[in-house]
Amino acid sequence: AKQGASYAFEGGKMIGADVGSKIAGGGVGLGGSGLGANSQFKPNDPHLNQTLGDVASLPKPKNETPWNNEVNAMVKLMIAAFGMIALANLLAKSKVPWVFTVAMGLAMAALAASVTILGMAVGSLILHHGQTMLGLMWSAIGAYLAMSAMKALAGGLGKHTETEANQLAKTFGGKISNFFKNNFSWLQGDDLDLKLKE
What residues have CB less than 8 Å from 136, skipping those under 6 apart? Predict the structure, then answer.
């Protein structure tokens, strides 16, 4: 045993081993791999020098969630509703009847989009796909947008004096706004009662 150990320390060749004859001048090369017998440590395993070639490109991943199309549609409706409500509130300040009519039309379109979101959230996400939390979140968004749209409709005439409001109320949009104001006055927060003059 001592003789075998002394051979190992002296760089001699042991049975079943492959150790360099001079430890200071080289490393270990077992089984055709490892460190070469020079100071540059170049790998001598032939498998490491092979070129693997081009890796095949993977296809672009697709979202296969069953309710993905519904969510995408609701996102588009939400953005459209927000934009129409903002524009309706801006145009409702105009004293030009046709501009006011456009504002009321936008508010009604926003209300329709909001109700659609609410229906899709309950009917598709909750009842059909069983996504209760996601459906409740979109239901809250739809309800908020619907309230905002009705507020824009109810508050349209409230942005004008009584004379201006009655003049605007003679248009189609004004009649719509007057209807919402008389039936949903609590959305505006005041008791202003504007009625069409005969």
Answer: 121, 126
Which helix (DSSP H) or strand (DSSP E) does residue 109 occupy? Answer: helix 97-120
103 closest CA partner among 139, 26, 67, 157: 157
Tokens coding 85 = 């409500």
Judged by DSSP in three states, 197 sits in coil
In angstroms, how far is CA 172 from the centroid of its own chain?
Answer: 38
Per the CB < 8 A criterion, the answer to whether 101 and 129 are in contact is: no
Distance CA 3, CA 23 (A): 17
Strand partners, 33: 30
Question: Is 164 buried (19+), middle (13-18) or exposed (0-12) by CB count in 10 A?
Answer: middle
Phi, psi of 148 (to 5 degrees): -65, -40
Average pLDDT for the chain: 74
| pLDDT tens per residue, range 172-190 | 666 777 777 777 666 555 4
Residue 76: HSE in the Cβ half-sphere, 13 Å Cα cutoff = 6
